[in-house]
Design goal:
The chain is an all-alpha fold. It has one domain: Orthogonal Bundle (Muramoyl-pentapeptide Carboxypeptidase, domain 1). Helix content is 41%, strand content 2%. A two-stranded antiparallel sheet has the order 1-2. 39% of the residues are buried.
Length: 168
């Protein structure tokens, strides 16, 4: 999971809510969706009520940026350009291989996910400081296996591993 949308809950949702100025209960409901759409519209983003890497970057929430196979957009284009790839903005198998190679050659976990640690090493965003990288991770006591981490949808140490759905 590297996007936030209605029906999800967890630490990343709470961080988004705090930034949007809505009650931060950690559950992405109608008020969060409404506030997000308003922000997106006001800032020239696709006003779809779904927060992904481009929205997180616009909000300054770099600790929530997580790129993986299937992700697309301007942030992916920046990544591809930095890796010397054709920048089509679509994170596919070729991008994943280049990411894993880069991570392996630069002392990072070669998991193919691009979070703040990899983005910081690449120097893509000056705003990604060691503090931001630290905020993107969960402490070991909070790292209980979740559906997302068990399914390989987020690195185990990432705050994304706390995401759960709450609507059926």
């Amino acid at each position: 999971m590297s996007i936030l949308k209605k029906g999800l809950a967890g630490t990343p949702v709470k961080i988004l809510q705090e930034k949007l100025g809505v009650p931060a209960d950690g559950q992405f409901g109608p008020k969060t969706e409404e506030a997000l759409k308003a922000y997106q519209k006001e800032h020239g983003l696709a006003a779809d009520g779904i927060a992904g890497p481009d929205t997180f970057a616009a909000l300054g929430l770099y600790e929530l940026v997580l790129l993986k196979v299937g992700t697309s957009g301007e942030t992916v284009k920046k990544l591809q350009t930095a890796l010397g790839l054709d920048a089509d903005g679509k994170f596919g198998a070729g991008t994943q291989k280049a990411v894993k190679d880069y991570q392996a050659n630069n002392g990072l976990d070669a998991d193919g996910f691009v979070g703040p640690a990899t983005l910081a090493k690449l120097g893509l965003f000056a705003q990604i400081t060691p503090e931001v990288v630290s905020k993107s991770q969960i402490s070991p006591q909070d790292a209980a296996p979740t559906e997302a981490s068990a399914a390989g949808e987020a690195p185990a140490k990432s705050i994304w591993a706390t995401i759960k759905g709450f609507f059926s």
